[in-house]
UniProtKB/TrEMBL annotation:
It comes from Candidatus Segetimicrobium genomatis. GO terms for molecular function: hydrolase activity. The keyword Disulfide bond does not apply. PANTHER family: 5-HYDROXYISOURATE HYDROLASE, URICASE AND TRANSTHYRETIN-RELATED. Coiled coil: none annotated. GO terms for biological process: purine nucleobase metabolic process. Keywords: Hydrolase. This is Hydroxyisourate hydrolase. InterPro entries: Thyroxine_BS, Transthyretin/HIU_hydrolase_d, Transthyretin/HIU_hydrolase_sf.
Length: 103
């Protein structure tokens, strides 16, 4: 199996519907600067949010989720090892959310 290039990816799951969340706008910021803005695919994923080489530093993912309560959810995280892939999944329901460091 080929090793993937270090990057940042995400997967959004809508637990209210029990399905991947399609068409969710996801923005990636590094040091306050917008790096990428994409939408989740039919499987609720964005495979590569980084254009070019991943660099160490503080990043922020902004999810514009389909929820009657949340208008957007933000997750700030630190990339200490830019040689590793970083997967940040989001689980969302109308009145709750959770995220974690995926593989």
């Amino acid at each position: 199996m080929a090793e993937r290039r270090p990057s940042i990816s995400t997967h959004v799951l809508d637990t209210d519907r029990g399905l991947p969340a399609r068409g969710v706008r996801v923005e990636l910021y590094r040091q306050g600067r917008l790096v990428s803005a994409q939408q989740t695919n039919d499987d609720g994923r964005v495979a590569d949010l980084v254009q070019g080489a991943l660099e160490a530093g503080v990043y922020r993912l902004v999810f514009h989720v389909p929820s009657p309560f949340f208008s957007k959810l933000e997750v700030e995280f630190n990339v200490a090892d830019a040689g590793r892939h970083h997967h940040i999944p989001l689980i969302v329901a109308p009145y709750m959310c959770a995220t974690y460091r995926g593989s």
